[in-house]
Each structure stands twice: as C-alpha cells, then as structure tokens.
Amino acid sequence: MPKQTIEVTIMGQTYTLTGDADEAYIRELARMVDVRMKELFERNPTINPLKAAIMTAVNMADQILKYEKQADAANEYLSEKVKALNNLLEV
Fold first, then answer.
1. What is the pLDDT along the chain (91 residues), one digit of tens a residue?
2. Residues in contact with 38: Cβ distance below 8 Å, sequence separation at least 6, in sequence order
C-alpha cells in the first residue's frame, strides 16, 4: 500500500500523519490517543499539554509491553504443549 497523508484531530489540534497503513487504522490510532489524553485531562485539568502527551505515551507503551509479555508467555506455553504432543505421537 502506498504512503498516504491523513489529517487527524487529537485534543482539538489537527495533525497530518503520513503512513502506509490503512486510513481507518491510522484514524483509530489517533482516536485512541485522543481518548487517553482526554481521560488524563479529566483527572488533571491543569496538566501541561506536553506532559500529558508524554504521560499518555508512557502509559500506552506500558500497556504494549505488558501485552508483549503476555503474548511471549502464551507462545512459550503453546510451544511446550506442542512439544509434549509431539513426544506423545512419537511413542
């Protein structure tokens, strides 16, 4: 898919994003960031916008890392089960 330029709105500001992903996917990413930042501002209305963006990024990175660890654990578990099944079939 060729790169495309898409305008999105996050916290009332328009940003131009360029990427090779589907437009709907890029818009969903922007929506997720917008929602998370708005939630942060609801809890702390006086927060500096830059600090809010950084905190949102760190929170989202934390969630990604947790999901990656869960996926790694699930893959390891499944690999062990496949090995056990293969051992049973070899007997």
1. 788 999 999 999 999 999 999 999 999 999 999 999 999 999 999 999 999 999 999 999 999 999 999 999 999 999 999 999 999 898 6
2. 11
How far is the C-alpha of 14 from the C-alpha of 36, rounded, in Å? Answer: 16
Which tokens is 77 given? 């578990």
DSSP string, 68-85: HHHHHHHHHHHHHHHHHH
Quickly list DSSP for 44-70.
-TT--HHHHHHHHHHHHHHHHHHHHHH
Cα(14)–Cα(11) distance, rounded to whole angstroms?
8
Beta carbons of 28 and 19 less than 8 angstroms apart: no
Residue 90 has what pLDDT? 84
14 touches 7 (CB < 8 A): yes
